Amino acid sequence: MSDSRCGASAPKESCTEPKTKKVRFDVLSQTLYGPATLREAEQQGREIVQALNDGGHLPHDVEVVWGCVVVDDQVSLAAQQAVLDDSGYIARIVWPKTFSPSEMHIPAFQAAKEAGTPVILMATQYRPEIPFATLDQPYMNNNQSAHGCPEVSDGARRAGLGITPITGDWRNAECQKALGAILQTVIDGKYQPVKLEDVSHAETVDLGKYQSIVASVKKDRGIRCLMIGGKMQWVTVTDGDAAQARVDHGWAVLHVGVGDLVAAVAKIADSEDGRGRVAAVLHDWTSRFDFRRINADPIKWESVIDQARLYLALKDLLTQSGATAFTTCFHATHGLKALPGLASQVLQADGYGFGAEGDWKQACLGRLVHDTMKGLGVVKPSWSFMEPYIWDLVGGRTLGSHMLEPSPAIATGTPIVDVFQLTIGDSGFPARLIFNSAPGPALDLCLLDLGDHWEVLIKAQDIVAGEPTPALPTANSLTIPAHGGNHAKLINATLVAGSCHHDIQVKDMTVEQAVAMANAMPNTIARVLLAA
After folding, report:
1. What is the spatial distance between Cα 316 and Cα 498, in angstroms, rounded to a whole number?
2. Smallest Cα–Cα separation from 372: which of 523, 521, 205?
3. What whole-number distance in Å separates Cα of residue 176 and Cα of residue 413?
4. How far apart are CA 331 and CA 13, in angstroms?
5. What is the DSSP string of 107-119?
6. pTM more than 0.85
7. What are the tens digits of pLDDT across the range 416-447?
8. What b/e sequence results for 465-488 when a residue is b if at least 16 CB atoms lie within 10 Å of its CB, and e otherwise?
């Protein structure tokens, strides 16, 4: 064993001694992205393990040991059990290189909690920067720790497991030193996971000053949300107790089969009235959005027409049900030509709450945000469904996006309409709007169901001018922490709080107004995440 694998202060002669303490390193992923992604995950995971061991910043008798790429609940529990069965292990490191649904990790996290095994969440990326010039959807899917880490952290919080995030570039000495320092506390018997109150504040305001917000929350006890086609498998933050939401918030989650949407689309396509309505929608869209790419390739018009039918079909289903929010899921597109993309984007701009992959909590929250802003006098509320996707760990920025659905209400300039294949879930060739978000102050809000109570997590951001991303077929939003806050600290706060991997990004709302909205929601805590 080379000298460089010993601790920085270790005597040189001790460097040949075998390591007596081990830390298991697992990459968390899933099978959705195919075998090539999993092979890449193992290669990169092994490279990170080697770098941590060779960096000279771990305690002198500790070695990081490669585990495996975790792709399902059985592998997840077996990986944790391997740590529990070997007394040489002192901790476990997990790195969600891609999105990794955390319901499948909850039993492992419960086992770690019961055994007192520290779990360290590596909030890193193989490349610390974002390759804006070449960034495409496959790269984002394969390098989305910004998306995967919050999902995993939410599963850990639901399991009652306190975690310690290590945020930064894995090659960087400071990141490795932080890991080494944590492991030293484990050896010394002084390890404590990061405390929630150290990275966030549960806040209250005088609701007497915010009667319009209180009125909006009361009014929205009537929210009905159509869950079309169910939810993504094994995902924690898109799940929740709909019955308790009915008790606490008055919301109703109504399950709708994708066949009902297929039938509604067919009715529009097959009737003279429906064709006239489609023509009117297309006329409206061509006056609002940039269609030059569609006009340059007329075959793409069929995808746009399909989205117009989906838009009208969804609106009909919503109207018939008295619903003001809805969800879709890429798992459930049977009988559809494509997943709703442009349709979902425009419906959000119309004021309907939306959640992808069956995320009814964020769909209802989006509608509540819309009505709260209207109650505050905002004529055109500017908000959108969003998710953090990829970090710029060098520049301290986060790129938010989603595969189809960010709302044009937050766009700068004229959104571009284009058509690309959506390979995830075999979801067709949906037309969608592509744009950068308008710079300015914003909040990212997400609603957590924590079993015995709800929390609205409030993250203050500034949207900054977007970088050119010519290969990225999605809308996006580039953010930094508000008020000069520290990017890594805000990430850590997000992960300790068990943040959603979906947000509602909202402009024209202050932190205090968001706190008031959450305070007005029964059995709900407003939690402000700290970046300082």
Report:
1. 36
2. 521
3. 42
4. 57
5. HHHHHHHHHT--E
6. yes
7. 999 999 988 778 999 999 999 999 999 999 99
8. ebbebeebbbbbbbbbbbeebebb
